Amino acid sequence: NISVSDTLTTPQACLVRIEGQASNQTISYASGWCNATISLAGASEGNSTIYVYANDSAGNYGLNNSYVVWIDDTAPSITIISPKTVTNSDVFRFLYSETISCSIYSLDASQNVTNCSIVNNEWSGILSGLSDGSHNITVWANDSLGNMGKVTRYWTRDTKPPLIFNVSHGQVTDTATIIWDTLEASNSTIYYGIAMNNLSNTKTDSSFVLSHSLTLTNLELNKTYYYNVSSCDQAGNCNYSGIYNFTTPLCFDKDGDGYESSICGGTDCNDNNPNIHPGAVDICGNGIDEDCDGSDAVCPSYTGMGGGVCISEWECEEWGQCYPNGSQYRKCIDTKRCTASAERIEMRICKYELEMWYCGDGICNGNETCTTCPMDCGTCVSENITTKKCEDTDGGFNKYIKGSVALLTNKHKIVYTDYCKDDRHGIEYLCVNEGLWSEEFYCEPRKRERCVDGACVKQMYCGDGICSGNETCATCPVDCGICKLKINTRDVINMVLLIFVVLAIILLFYVKR
């Protein structure tokens, strides 16, 4: 309300501008007053000056007055510190951006509750009586000018720890992989050590998953290790499996070339290098005993046709494909032809790559379930199953048959299928006391076995070291050796007759002389 007077003419209107605004606002005049509600858009918050002008019918303008006012059109902000989106706690804590005497909250859209216990723009307390499940709370607050702030938090209350089951370990060397399952997404921790009462070593993974797998490394050989796995859900509820154990071997095939170390009674003279073992080709003159016969091979030297020493110079083709038994071959030729056998076949260790499993390949492997991959494992059973049942299609441990295990638990049917880790090792699932168990199996290369699609199969192929099937020296010299020159019997008889004829002619010539 602005009072306006003019002694000579009649006032026409008032002009108002608030500090921070780019233009004036016009207010109509009537009976000595300019009355209107003005806009605060563009005005600066805090202390601001309002400038008031008036004009008369003669077009005269005058600055009648100015006023300093406090402008606040911002609602107070409310921050809910707790509860978090998933929690096992009933502690609530709210922060306010400005001084608030009282605020209002509503829990799960129930009756509004007025809270006037706000100290230093903060309130905390315990709201008891909540059950596990989904909840929400809405908080309102007004400042002294009537600006209202509002915020809503949705959260899940969870006070039950995750269920841990199917705890097992695979093949143990100087490493061991521990696996287990939980029925809700949880993190992974293993406490382990060589004393049952002192599991001071830990291995963790903070990812929240249903299928857990952690690998322990740098283990001492010939030791019994004890371990206890733990999983905590997103609400902070933790559970433990109890104590399990495994024993590391005295020694093992460390470099994976199929030969155990000589330290353990094996024949591998260097178990840190997969290219050194009794089946390797010993390259002459390099100072390395590749075939473990006790010495480096001596390079051959022969006298050439023109006299002197003939030194072999070998030229080799590119290495061929990597066979499933982990070997590669190539053909080499001595360009100097120092010996009658100027060709040789060389072999080296290689890494045979198998196809990787993935969700959608039509096979339900060990890490897939009806929950994580229904495309391969089928839809989870929806009805409530009160009893647990385990079904094994191959009737137990059988590494020569690919099988699967169906585990029926509460509301779930989880299928685990035998699978290959690589061409030598695989995982077999079986039922033990109506529960799921896994064992690692080994396919023996010396028996011409390799792991294919979850089972050990015997393979015959060029490069397996055995000349069999349709292989010949012509089609597979790697296994059957280089073909030898065949001599026809008729050719031999003809050659002998020719020699006699030549000798007879020579004898007749000398007799006539």
**The CATH H-level homologous superfamily of the domain at 164-248:** Immunoglobulins
Give me the oligomer status: single chain
Number of helices: 3
Proportion of strand residues: 35-45%
Global shape = elongated
In the sheet with the most strands, the strands line up as 1-4-3-2-5-6
Describe this structure in words.
It is a single chain. The protein is mainly beta and 513 residues long. The chain is 6% helix and 41% strand. It has helices at residues 374-377, 477-480, 489-512, and strands at residues 2-3, 11-18, 25-30, 33-34, 46-56, 61-71, 78-82, 86-87, 91-96, 103-107, 113-115, 122-126, 133-142, 148-157, 164-169, 176-193, 201-216, 224-232, 238-240, 244-247, 301-303, 309-311, 314-316, 327-334, 343-349, 389-392, 404-409, 412-417, 419-420, 425-432, 435-442, 449-452, 455-458. The strands form nine sheets. It has a six-stranded antiparallel beta sheet, with no helix packed on it. Strands 15, 16, 17, 18, 19 and 20 form a six-stranded antiparallel beta sheet that branches. The protein has a five-stranded mixed beta sheet with strand order 8-14-13-10-11, with no helix packed on it. The longest helix is centred in the C-terminal third of the chain and has 24 residues, at 489-512. Mean pLDDT is 80; it is low at 381-387.
